[in-house]
Every structure is written in structure tokens, then in C-alpha cells.
Fold this sequence. Notes:
The complex is a heterodimer of chains A (about 400) and B (about 210). Chain A has helices at about 15-30, 45-50, 80-85, 130-145, 160-170, 175-185, 190-200, 205-210, 220-230, 230-250, 310-320, 340-350, 365-370, and strands at about 35, 45, 60-65, 70-75, 95-105, 115-125, 155-160, 215, 255-260, 275-280, 285-290, 305-310, 330-335, 355-360, 375-380, 385-389. Chain A has about 400 residues and is an alpha+beta fold. Chain A has a nine-stranded mixed β-sheet, with helices on both faces. Chain A has a four-stranded mixed β-sheet with strand order 14-13-15-16, covered by helices on one side. Chain B has two domains: about 5-95 and about 180-215, D-Maltodextrin-Binding Protein, domain 2 (3-Layer(aba) Sandwich); about 95-175, D-Maltodextrin-Binding Protein, domain 2, CATH 3.40.190.10. Chain B is about 35% helix and about 30% strand. Chain B contains eight helices and eleven strands. In chain B, a hairpin with a 4-residue loop joins strand 2 (about 40-45) and strand 3 (about 50-55). The interface between A and B is medium-sized, with 21 and 20 residues.
Amino acid sequence: MFEKPLGMRDTLPQLYETKSQIRNSIGDVMKSWGFQFIETPTLEYYETIGAASAILNQQLFKLLDPQGHTLVLRPDMTAPIARVAASKIFNENYPLRLAYSENVYRAQQREGGRPAEFEQIGVELIGDETVSADGEIIALMITALKEVGLEDFQISIGHIGFLKELFLQILGTEERAKTLIKFLYEKNYVGYREHVNSLSLSTIDKQRLLDFLNLRGSTEVINQAIDLVEYDQGKDSVLQLKKLWDTMDDYGNQEKLKFDLTLVSHMNYYTGILFEVYAKQVGFPIGNGGRYDGLFQKFGKNTSATGFALRLDRLVEALGPLPEITPSECILFSEERRSEAFQIAKMKRAEGLKVVLQDINGVNHIDACTDQYEEITFLIGKAGGRVST
Amino acid sequence: MNPFLTIAMPKGRIFEEAVELLRLAGYNLPPEFKDSRRLIIEVEVENFRFILAKPMDVPTYVEHGVADLGIAGKDVMIEEERDVYELLDLKISHCYLAVAGLPNTKMNNVAPKVATKYPNAAAAYFREQGEQVEVIKLNGSIELAPIIGLSDRIVDIVSSGRTLKENGLVEYERIADITSRLIVNPVSYRMQDKRINDLVDRLNHVINSESINS
């Protein structure tokens, strides 16, 4: 057998069909919200895209170009889109609504069968820092997921600005705040509690940090969060969440949302509201997103942006068994009746049917060939009519 | 209908202790589980399904979401680094991860060898100490390695220290304290949040009152 590199997969017809149906439905929703699709190169410079991307260095596929520059296979689409959006092309057009549906590449460190190449479909809303933009992104994601028939899903929303502010207020230094954030990033609540208890803080401050872990749930979380912060800066973040909640109410999409202020999807990429989306039957998040204000600075712009990306492979898994592909029919012909066969095929194709034209001389095993099709028409020999089975 | 909450557990003593904790937390579990060879045990009154796995595999089941929850030793969590929530220290199955070897021996100063069931954890520990070592992965009977000359040191879990003693080995350094942890799949933690929060609260209550009593 000829092997493929680790984590690389073939997409066979049935899966291909499902993926393209999902891609088309979601793409149509995105377009109807005024987002424009773009494509960017698969290869980018490591120095720009590789370093700017949210993906860890050890997950990047790197290679050298003939001049010796280090290239990466793009690990996500957000950084390339930021590169494009920061260029002159779009200078005066902010806010900018862009969409993409592309394969991205991430090397896997364990269990080599996990996909190292997978398709992401997503959007970026660039140059609009209002909560309305965050709300639009989340509402668009919900609409798209419903459009493809996903019912049982949930979105958890956090705010990285809030937790940074709270930790800074209590702990005093960025360094100490970062240590604590790392525990959340690693999802290690036990370690978080042990660390808080080991700090030399007042009992009240310790309790505030421990209570922080309970900021998960519905609107009640907003008031609990306001009680935890002392200064206006932290409160601003909470008020953004409040506004987001009201925005989602106006969209009529509230029921899919929960707050989880302990959510830290990345150590230093997101800067404001961030979210993950989960579906029943899939053990991993099917998508995520959030506000990333720092990225554009790496491309020389001071611009705020937000966006989301859905993983198509996990979405397929969430939607359950693959639908059967509607079978095509086959016309088996011999040379004498070739012209007739072509005419019939043309008519049927015009009706929207899938028709295979097959010269009988090209087939070794007639039975094996005919078994693939729902309907066969034989146009063989000089005279006689059509025989359909 | 309420779907099962699936809990992955290691076979043996940890299972017994964890089940006892769940009973104390008010869950209605049968007094004993017959037929210990079964891999899946369903408790319909509580809508629980236990899957009995190798200790090292528990976080794997939970990460992939085929188990919503799991009970795993901290040793396994350090070794496997799976993407799961570590929610509670259950404070059962106390032991610790230690470096051991033959008494009064120094590590080979060129490339000392360390045999262990925990290659990641061992490598990380010696890296932090600034020592270059060759880590040799074994699957059991680790004590054999220094005796027979395969390695200078071993990294293994120690509970009473009896196994080390019986094999003429001594402990050199203590790496980390180990207890069993309640771990949760990130998706289940959201999609089944009510049931899981309730379970965590009830278990937390039991653990706290136990630690006050003891």
C-alpha cells in the first residue's frame, strides 16, 4: 500500500458530497449577511503568518523556499486575512466583512490518525469594535449552524479582558496574573485552587479568586461578576457581556448561549469577548472565535476585529450519519448506437439526472459494473429497442 | 429521557473508593458490583454508566468524549496531558511520584538512564532539574531496572514504600504528590452542565467534610 503522511486524509465521494453541501449552505448564509469570500495562499512566510497565528509553534508545518526563507502551511485563516485586510487594498472600506472556507494545517503530536489538515469555514468582521459586531458574529454562527440542521448545540461565552482585569486588581502584577491564567488555560481547576490558597493574600481576595471559578451559567453570572471587580475597567468588560446578552435577545438567539468567564481558549491571542461552540456527540469543540485586537498591530494597523471558525470535519460528525448519495443511472452502449445513446443522455442530464455513459467494450465484468447503478439502459447491437432494468 | 452520564474509572481499589465517595454524596448505588470482569456497568436508578478502564487510559476516554467524566490519578494527568477539565481533588488513593534507585549510588554523569512507566513526567522533571538523562519506558515491574543494571534510577509512584524496600531500593527525590482527580470532558461540561455541576457540588461537600473529620 502507498502510505500518506501522518494526519493526512483522503476525502471519498460520500464525505465530499456532505462536506460540499454543508459548505454551500453555510456559505449562502454568510453571503446573505453581506460577507464576501476570499482566498489566500496555502504557503505563507513563517516570520509573518507563522508568528502572528494563534497556533503553537510546534504545530506548524515548516518548509524552506529556494531562497532559504522559512515558509509555513497556513495553520489558520485569521492571520492571512488580517494580512490582506491590513494592506492597502481595503484601506477605506472598514468595517470589513470577509468570509473563507479553506483547509488549514496543524501537525499533531500524538495519535497520528488525527487530522493534520482540515477545512475551516468562518468569517472575520474587521474594524468595528462595538458589541454589535460581537453579537453579529455569534448570531451569524447560530444561524449558519441551524441552517445545516444542527439543533443540539451550545455556545459558551467568556471575556478575557474581564479575567485579566480581575486578576490584575487582586494580584498586582501581570506576571502573577499570567500564572493563574495558565491554570485556566490548562483547564486545571484543582491546580488553580491550590495556587490561590498558596498565595499570600487576604482571605477576602482569596475567596474572590475562588468564587471566580463559579462564574458559569446564565444572566445571573453578570451580577456575580460585577460584585467581584472593584474598578470600572473590569466592570466595563462585564457591561459588554450584558450588552451582548441583550443584543442576542434581539436576534432571538439567547437560548443557545451560556456564560463561562473561566473560558481561556488561548494564552495571549484574544483580547475581549471570546466563545466556543459545542455539539452533542462530538467530544471536541466544533468551532470557536472571539475578538482579537492585538493581531492587527503585528501588521502595522491599530484595528479591532472579531470572527469565528467552524471545523467542517467535526460539524460533519455532529450532524450524524452521512446521507446516501443519490445514485446515478447508466447507459451501456455499443458503437452502432453511440449517437442514440448520446442523445438520450443529453436529454436526461437536462432533466437534472446524473447519467453515466459507458461503452460496453470498456467493461470487463458487466455484473460488477451494472451493480453500481440504480437503473441501466442497454443500447447494444444494430436493431431493437431499449432494454431498461 | 435523561441520557446516561458515563464515568470512566480505573479497575480495582480506586473504583471501590470512588464508588464509596459517590454513595456518601447521596447517590443510590448497589451495595456491591457483581461480576468484576464486566467492562461496562449501568446503574439505571441514577442514570450512571461506569466504564472500567486501565488507569492510564481514563483521560483518553474522557478527552474523546466517550466518557463524560473520569477518575484519574494525578500521575496519569501529568503523564498524558489530555485536554480535559481537572475539577476536583478527590483526596483518595494518596501516593507520590518519586525518583528511586539502589542505595548509595550516584547517577552516571555522562548519560544517566532512568526507567519509568511515566516517560513524559520523568523527562519533564529532569529537564527542570537541568540534568540530561536517557528515559527508558517500561510497562511494569520498574524496580527490576536498577537491580539488573538497565538504569541508574527509576521514576515511579510510591504509596507505602514497601515495594521499594523489598527490592532493596531507596527513594532519592520526591517529584509530586498524587491523588485521584475528577476529570470532565470540555463538551460534556457544557452540554450536561446541570448534572455535572450537581455531582461536583455533592462530591465537593463530601470531600470537605471528610477532610475536616480526619
